[in-house]
Amino acid sequence: MENHHPAIVSRETFEEVAAVISQRGKEKGVTSGSKYQNRYPLSGRIVCSECGSMFERRIHYSTHQKYIAWCCSRHIEKKGECSMKFIRNDAVEAAFTTMMNKLVYGHRKILRPLLDSLRRVDDEGSCHRVSELEDRIEAVMERGQVLSGLMAKGYLEPALFNKEINELAAELEHLQGQKDIHIKMMNGNLSKIEEVTRLLKFASKSEMLTAFDNGLFEEYVNRIIVYSRTEVGFELKCGITLKERLVR
Fold first, then answer.
1. Strands across the sheet containing 87-88
2. Fewer CB within 10 Å, N- or C-terminus of the chain?
3. Would you state the pLDDT for residue 125?
4. Residue among 42, 200, 1, 233 nearest 119 (CA)
5. Would the pTM of this model clear 0.85, i.e. be above it?
6. What order of strands is seen across the sheet that includes strand 241-245?
7. What percent of the chain has pLDDT over 90?
């Protein structure tokens, strides 16, 4: 029930204290959540699929035990804006261990086809497209040189020359932009190829995991996406997201 007793600390006081703590943290070079980053590898890596907020670490107490849980910060602050409830830390760690064991067991059916597919895209697509764009850029530049030569010899009116040069400049800018986009795609694809190669090398030589490994999590996982209290997705650095069920 709302407002059934006077607040121990007013919202205004709470916000003022939070601002002071934040300012002191900035002065000491401490960012939000950084004091837990080294102790807890999951800190700052769990995101809510419903509202996009990060999950915060909490300790929950029950009748017989206490346990670590992760809670959506938006739900904690305003539960009416996000319905996502907490998930247990041990369930997330178990799900990661299960996912890694699946990759170890099925790397030939999961990672090897992914690596081959990325290599085909890299070889057949972007490289050929960049080469085509470079040829077109060179042709546009040659046309500009021809126009400049004709203008120098007095064969073109200044107004016509300026019109043609402006059109060539616009076309050149567009082609260069397209080239930059494809180069970024190539670089991103190369990065994914490197990450998949590293993961495949690990999975093909590793034994089944018997417990959560902090180092492996930090090495291969970008973040965790929480879809519900029973399902999360591990977004890997190689570009794929693998879903796992949470067993409580």
1. 55-61, 66-72, 87-88
2. N
3. 62
4. 200
5. no
6. 46-48, 221-228, 231-236, 241-245
7. 46
